[in-house]
Amino acid sequence: MRSRLYILSAAICLFLTGCDLGTLQVERPTPRPAPTEPENPLFDPSVDCSSPRVDPGPHYVRRLTNEEYVNTVGDVLGVDIADLRARLPGDSYVAGFKNTAIGLSVSGRRIEQYAHIAGEVAERLDPDALGERASCTLGDSACERAFLRDLGLQLFRRPMTDAEVERFARLFRVVESEGDGFERAARLVVEAMVQSPQFLYRLEARHPEARLPRRTFDASQFEHSADGARTKKLDLQPGRYRISVDAALAPGAKAASLSLDFGSRQVERWPVEAIVSSPYTAGFEVGEEQGGRQVVALTADGEVAIDGVELVGPFSSSLDLSGPDVTDGVRLVTGYVMASRLSYFIWHSAPDKVLLEAAAAGELQTADQIAAQAERMLEDRRARRALRSYLDEWLRLDFLDTIERDEAAFPEFSRALVEAMKAETYRLFEAIIWEERADLLSVFTAQKTWTTADLAKLYGFEPVEGEAEYDLSEIDERQGLLTHASILALTSTNESTSPVKRGLYVRTQFMCQPVAPPPGDASSDAPEVAPDASTRERLAQHTEDPNCAYCHKMMDPVGFGFEHYGPMGAFRTHEPNGAQVDASGRLETDDDPVEFYGAPELGQILHDSDAVETCMVQNVYQYAIGRPPGPADVCDLRAVRERFTDEGRTYGELVLGVVTSDAFRYTRTPATKEAP
Questions:
Q1: 2, 67, 468, 520: which could form a disulfide with 464 (CB 3.0–4.6 Å)?
Q2: Pick the residue with more confidence: 539 or 459?
Q3: Same domain, yes or no, for 169 and 297?
Q4: Where does the record place the region Disordered (predicted)?
Q5: pLDDT tens digits for 514-556?
Q6: Structural domain ending residue among the three candidates 202, 222, 255
Q7: What is the domain range of residue 120?
């Protein structure tokens, strides 16, 4: 988490200093010394990892991100809703990524849009996508329930409970009462399911071993009397119980009400205007003197069809976290929960049939079983789609969608060119990961690229039709990720380059290193800067000021190495005012500063950097577990990095290290005690 707070600190610093446009003024006689770069505390080598104790860190409920939501609907139902995505409120960056659990909040507007989109999904649905049971006949209860269980398994990523099946089955009766057919009922079920909590959230049961005593009864099990009462005799043990009722107004009937009585006590009364699927009642007690044969009575004052009653109890255990001998327990994540963890990490979508079958067969328990599934999934096209989404967030490529450039100064700028910039970066990672299966950090030193004709012109290459591969071994100025127009345009302003932004970007995105926040007595007053000064000269006035140097020392010298590349990423030897570019740079470290000239040389430094290697691991690990790493993750991160390093630093080994880590395979479970 600490490394992700660095970005916020740096942003505050840049705001207060005016970045390229001003300097920091502080009332004090002597400058504050610039801090040295700390070791990444998440990879602290002094931490003892020999203990067999497992601590997976905290776990949070996670809403599907917009990306996951669109992908899941498309993959499971075959309905493309990419055009509807803009209706949803955007997911926000929290601690560096959009899938951070604590940032996945839900607003009223989001809920409203989920409902609207669900209707669109139902309308666009091809009935053939529902499988062989899409041809059921309304009234065929067995076929309807089999259809629900098949669909629910895919959308809820686990088998439906009996209670869930009964509740969704009521929709068939609604459609049947309106005289419509099974296809309409199936669409209505889909519409309900894709806006249900079971679909929208990745819900992981915290007590899979706990089974509440639960009994269900349908209408045929109740005795009917002439006054409309339905009664059921039950054998109940002493304890506390709760009841839920599913009922509906009979076709053509007017509003009615339903009362629930247990013994001589009325537990609940509901108005019935259409459908009632009640929450559980607050509860009622069966004492020692009442144990034995009891009567549950449902009485209707009108025509009410009762679909079922669910009785839960007696409750024999409760959570007790107050005792001194009670600590957080840990359990292994297996089955359907593990299937979802794998699929939403590697695919950003729902588990496929193979994963669900493996979950049902108990084949997602060992590290080897999990790794085997992960290897299979990495070869699927969905893994490439997910990688692009990850790159959008890690590298902030999605910000390119909103950049603008002055048309007179940059006539080559277009949305198509921006898309080509992003595509070049995607293509480089895909080639290294899947085609070459090479060292992931070789993205910084790659000597080939793929561009469209528009981007080739920007680079000064010979343009060809469509996408073309270019050998860069003889083109010194265009090698590796740091010379991609996507990164260079992203870290510039609309008018000029920005060594501050570019240096900050390298520090935060690639090295997970801090940039010191401004002192509390900082002022944003900016001094006069010579109008004809070059970028380096202008920023030199900032860094030579001892007060401003406190903030800019870690960024500017790194950013100067990019000065050969203009705001669109085109190579240049002179600035717009005619000044010759000086691309010498310096990377401050705990030891001696590392000098370099130009972005390609910096790329080689990053390729060889321990800080970049640990940052790569940290980012992918955080993305998988959905929260910033903390002290509990130090040993996990060390193990993942060791595997990553020992196995050639490939993306595949990084993923396998993460999915077999403790944080991915385990979860905390509060201990339980028997109730007195």
A1: 468
A2: 459
A3: no
A4: 27-49, 515-541
A5: 776 665 655 555 556 566 666 766 766 666 666 666 567 788 9
A6: 202
A7: 62-202
